[in-house]
Design goal:
269 residues; alpha/beta; Rossmann fold; Alpha/beta hydrolase fold-3 domain-containing protein; 20% strand; hydrolase activity; eight-stranded mixed beta sheet
Amino acid sequence: MGTVWTEEMLDSNAGPVPVRIYRGDTLVKAPPLVLHLHGGAFLGGSPACGQLIATLLAEAGAVVVAADYSNAAKEPFPAALKFTYELLGALCKGRGELASKKSPLFVAGEEAGGNLAAGLALKARDVHLGGLQGQILLSPMLDPSTATGSFRKAEAGMGNCQWADGWNHYLGFASTACHPYAAPSYCMRLSGVAPALVVTAEDDPMRDESVNYARRLREAGVMVHEHILAGKTGWPGAYSRCAAPRPDWGGAVRGFFTEFFQETGALLH
């Protein structure tokens, strides 16, 4: 499979934004259009760190727009969410130029990007943004407590924890800690959000919060595809090593993407 990416400028209400656009060598007439948000624990990261996941999404049949929200992440919530919501709106309006006027819209993210993707799905429901077909969450940061069993098992919350530091930086003030867009695991109303693909791993510190969120979405009547990769994956850090050889789980994750696009009808046009 051949996937190429180009650097382009995306016009949005936030101004011109540099993005990477990934396209595979085989696309359906109206391919899914995906806003992809990289990880980085709200403290860093870049589209280059998200190259592997963006490429797998493109190989699954999508046109992927990968954006860098790191500048917005230097400010507390809701700066990054507002910035990425403007990008999502730009994709919604400009889908004809980026893919097809009939392309279904998705948002995807890993780790901190997964937090933003989940928050965007909630906001899109609440403000009635049309056309969001699905949310793709890979080991998303959803629970600022960093005290789940999987966190304790990975000893990820011990000492200089990048995720605890990232949460403290992102939330800024205690009053925002329970805002559902900032910490989706605390959201009490999940019905009506876009269908979700939730992917985590046995050794992922965010495993428990991912599984819990998938369960609560399902109980709220949301269509959910959930997958837990077995064995030692090194998630979430493993998918940000863009220069490394493709990992063994790459083919499985690409398959999850393809299946999700098919189940939501995104590859049927």
